[in-house]
Amino acid sequence: MTPLLGHNYIGGRRSANGTVQLQSLDATTAEPLPVRFFQASEAEVDAAARAAATAYPIYRNLSAEKRAQFLDAIADEIDALGDEFVATVCRETALPAGRIQGERGRTSGQLRLFAKVLRRGDFYGARIDRALPDRQPLPRPDLRQYRIALGPVAVFGASNFPLAFSTAGGDTASALAAGCPVVFKAHSGHMATAEWVADAIIRAAERTGMPAGVFNMIYGGGVGEWLVKHPAIQAVGFTGSLKGGNALSHMAATRPQPIPVFAEMSSINPVFLLPEALAVRGEQIAAQLAGSVTLGCGQFCTNPGLVIGLRSPQFSTFLETFCASMNQQPAQTMLNAGALTSYSRGLGELHEHPGLTHLAGKPQQGDQAQPQVFKADISLLLKGDELLQEEVFGPTTIVIEVEDRAQLAAALQGLRGQLTATLIGEADELLAFRWLAELLQEKVGRILLNGYPTGVEVCEAMVHGGPYPATSDARGTSVGTLAIDRFLRPVCFQNYPDALLPEALQNANPLGIRRLVDGEVSQSVL
């Protein structure tokens, strides 16, 4: 490992021309780390974007196998990072070593999964409609379509996942898989972690012969606007706050050439508790739900922030047990001082709201986050109360009791877009509440039955997205192999001679991929 220097990475080289220096802090003690990081100047942001633009035509035209080898190499480099790396991440985030080691495995596994996607070839979306010269009343020309990379992508690192949603996380992995060079804006909460991972990416790029600007990284709190507005950038990936995502979306939409922003922002992830399940296993549900609310100090984007149940003796008993369990949960250190300040402010707003009652939790004071439970009147959800819909980033949740199914259905009409919704119930009542799952399909990206949302599997079928404000674009996902689609666009070739066609569309099918040929899926030579 090259010693940490705090320099930006531009076109395969380090750069430190800015005059502003930044400090990374120990998340537990607030002591500064020994390295100072150089905020990118406007000229350096421009150079990073131009380096990505220069790399784009070379990188996107590499074979899928070459790009797969690059992703595999990044995964290998990240897996090889030793104890000093893990200690650095723990120090910057206050997350335990076991969590970081698991997240590293998730990050490298995600990269290898996208390498598998590239080798499989279905990401091309190859479609062929062969010519019909004798068709009446008009002949059909030969038409062939596949997908290419959008262009350089700006990626903004997340605070709560220093590896899996950051430097080499899902947005970076899917963009690189698609053939898009990346300019990564490091999160100021874990800049040393970002440098460790960026070094690993650069080593992998050099080892596999990638163009110099395939990956670039910049530091700084005020550089995002320069990056998003740069004409070389063709898409943005973001995980963070609703305010931040909205700001980036506005910047991107008001450019001379608007570009898409794929922002994961705000979700309260409602959990619906059905009476039979509470009667059969209420204590177990209370303990499991308390564990989910407080997992990772509540700093998961899928943290269950709203719990809804039908008024019943079972729900009343559950609520007592749940509050007792939450009162037993320990205080935890958050990712950084800013997160704790935001959490304290959010709790203050909940305490001051006339429609909310505090049910459980010690007073929020000191340098750790105290778990909390509030109860809201159903009228707040019926009226679409703003505060009730806002995510509180931390270990807290709001409970709502509804009179009956009709009131539940009415309340859900006012629910905004979410990443997840969860139904806890017995088999027969899940059938009886099938209408609820149908309604939730219009509101969320993932519906869980008898599980808890604070776990997002990296796989082919996962959807980590949802209608606004969960994300800025409900048509995609930031986790799972479908994430690559965000950074691809279709191109059609009409009446092209076979020799000029991309390999994915040639008659001989040299890539051996499955294609849609005249409306039928085929892997055959034409």
Number of strands: 21
Radius of gyration: 25 Å
CATH superfamily of the largest domain: Aldehyde Dehydrogenase, Chain A, domain 1
What name does CATH use for the topology of the largest domain?
Aldehyde Dehydrogenase, Chain A, domain 1
Estimate the global geometry from the Cα principal axes.
globular
Average pLDDT taken over every residue = 96
Structural class: alpha/beta
Strand order in space, largest sheet: 14-15-16-13-12-17-18
Distance between the termini: 50 Å
Helix content: 25-40%
Overall number of domains: 2
Judging by the overall fold, what is the CATH architecture of the largest domain?
3-Layer(aba) Sandwich
Family: Belongs to the aldehyde dehydrogenase family.
GO molecular function, one term: 2,5-dioxovalerate dehydrogenase (NADP+) activity
InterPro entries: Ald_DH/histidinol_DH (IPR016161), Ald_DH_C (IPR016163), Ald_DH_N (IPR016162), Aldehyde_DH_dom (IPR015590), Aldehyde_DH_Superfamily (IPR050740), ALDH_KGSADH (IPR044151)
Keywords: Oxidoreductase
Structure description:
This is 2,5-dioxovalerate dehydrogenase. Residues 36-458 form the Aldehyde dehydrogenase domain. With 526 residues, the chain is α/β, with parallel strands linked by helices. It folds into two domains: 9-265 and 477-485, Aldehyde Dehydrogenase, Chain A, domain 1; 270-449, Aldehyde Dehydrogenase, Chain A, domain 2 (3-Layer(aba) Sandwich). The protein is 37% helix and 19% strand. The protein is built from 16 helices and 21 strands. It has helices spanning 42-60, 64-79, 83-93, 97-120, 170-178, 191-207, 224-229, 242-253, 275-294, 313-327, 337-352, 378-382, 386-389, 405-413, 427-432, 434-440; strands spanning 8-10, 13-15, 21-25, 32-38, 127-129, 143-149, 153-156, 182-185, 215-218, 235-239, 261-264, 270-273, 306-310, 356-360, 372-376, 396-402, 418-424, 444-449, 488-494, 515-517, 520-522. The protein has a seven-stranded mixed beta sheet, with helices on both faces. The protein has a five-stranded mixed beta sheet with strand order 19-6-5-20-21, with no helix packed on it. The N and C termini lie far apart (50 Å). The mean pLDDT is 96.
